[in-house]
Amino acid sequence: MAMMLRYSSIFRQSFRWIGQPIRCKSSANTGIQCEQRDQVYWIRLDRTKQYNAISLELYAQLTKILQQVAKNDHIKLAIVTGNGPYFSSGNDLTNFSRTDMERIKLTEYMVDLCRQFVGTPLIGAINGPAFGIMFTILGLFDCLIATDRTYFISPFSSLAISPEGCSTFTFPRIFGPSLASELLYFNRRLEVAEAHRLGFVSRIIPNDQWNDHIEQWIYGQQGLVKTCYANSMMNAKSLVRNQQIRNELHQTNQRECELLFKHFLSDECTARLESFFSRKK
């Protein structure tokens, strides 16, 4: 288990390109598109045929990118969104069918990815349905906007696994313990209108106005780039998510991934995945 919790020191040592444009590998190889534009760093999930499911390799790439963003003084904001009709269908289930060593690496990546959401102010532009970890991890973002075609679901118990993304800490605080239990244990689907009413999403944008709205919100004359100072945003974030909260999130993250790793190896999870892959064939 100590091996599972070992964070990848290679990532933390290799990406200190402060003040330089961040390079991103081609979408065809990594399932991700990146663009640095006028102090905003765009991260677009781009595995549209897989509904932007997160592969083991995509976890590694996302972690690298977020670490670079957090250390780049020329970036005010980072925005994560998806290409195609889905934000993300969550974990690529082929991740769970890998060898034990690859499952250990998967949990390391999941731990390390969650650790990156305490850096640069982070916006989630949720362009469609969000499943599993790509729903639960949204509780770590600073702001979420969504299209009217969005909904959220975390079908953990139907897959015989347990929650992650620090959701066992964030969701009870966002939704209250009863609704959080429905979302994390009982596979409840959360519609975007309810997510907005509860404050999980700050605004809902009609799908046909999505691109124009974001462009004006970020880059317009009264947009975030022109009206928000980076140090002010970071100082405010340090109060909203102070050191005590960050420590609790890191501890929750480790506990969740320890339990998740046990579920990966359980008879229930193995049987459920065998059923899934046999139907797929």
UniProtKB/TrEMBL annotation:
One of the record's GO cellular component terms: peroxisome
> Is Chloroplast set as a keyword in this record?
no
The family database entries (InterPro entries) matched by this protein are listed as:
ClpP/crotonase-like_dom_sf, ECH/Chromodomain_protein, Enoyl-CoA_hydra/iso, Enoyl-CoA_hydra_C
Pfam families listed in its UniProt record = ECH_1
Q: Which compartment or compartments is the protein found in?
A: Peroxisome
Stored SUPFAM superfamilies = ClpP/crotonase
Q: Cite the GO molecular-function annotations of the record.
A: delta(3)-delta(2)-enoyl-CoA isomerase activity
Q: Which UniProt keywords apply?
A: Isomerase, Peroxisome
What is the name attached to this protein's record? Enoyl-CoA delta isomerase 2, mitochondrial-like
Q: What is the lineage of its organism?
A: Eukaryota, Metazoa, Ecdysozoa, Arthropoda, Chelicerata
